[in-house]
Amino acid sequence: MIATAAIVADIALILTHRVRAVPDPGKYAPWPYMAVGLAGCVAGWLVVGRPEAAWDDLFLALVCGVVVTSEAAHAARALSGRPWVGWATALVSGAAAATWLLPDLLPDPLPFT
After folding, report:
1. Model confidence pLDDT, tens digit, residues 36-64
2. Neighbours of 112 (CB within 10 A)
3. Which of 96, 92, 5 is nearest to 48 (CA)?
4. Quick one: which of 17, 28, 33 has its CA closest to 86?
5. Rounded-to-integer distance, Cα 70 and Cα 94, Å
6. pLDDT on residue 50
7. Are 3 and 97 in contact (CB under 8 A)?
8. Cβ–Cβ < 8 Å for 112, 49
9. Which string of b and e fits 20-42 if b means at least 16 CB within 10 Å?
């Protein structure tokens, strides 16, 4: 499933950043990346056909698409040195997290393929 691959990639990126990064003396504010991750979740929800969601599915999608995504976006920006990489990571990971909302009855992870 797309969401599972995205969360594994996000966690690998975060762990790589934690191992390689030099301690940053400045404060990191995750709010802009969280907002972009949430926008990505909404965009992904619209792309997959606005499926009905139960509370547990919505919670999983929001945690993966907002919280983990913001940390992965910060890690991607820090490792690459380019600001656009962090924004792209937040948007794409947020959109991928919306696939948690798809029903398990579908044989294909995307309903329009």
Report:
1. 999 999 999 898 888 887 777 788 888 98
2. 7
3. 96
4. 33
5. 9
6. 84
7. yes
8. yes
9. eeeeeeeeeebeebbebbbbbbe
Q: What span, in angstroms and rounded, lies between the C-alpha atoms of 89 and 30? A: 13
Quickly list H helices, 25-82: 31-47, 55-62, 69-80
Write out pLDDT tens, residues 97-106. 988 887 764 5
CB 17 within 8 A of CB 78: yes
Measured CA distances, 99 to 5, 61, 92, 110 (Å): 11, 8, 12, 8
Sign for the pseudo-dihedral over CA of 64, 70, 73, 74:
negative
Closest-CA residue to 95 (of 26, 39, 28): 39
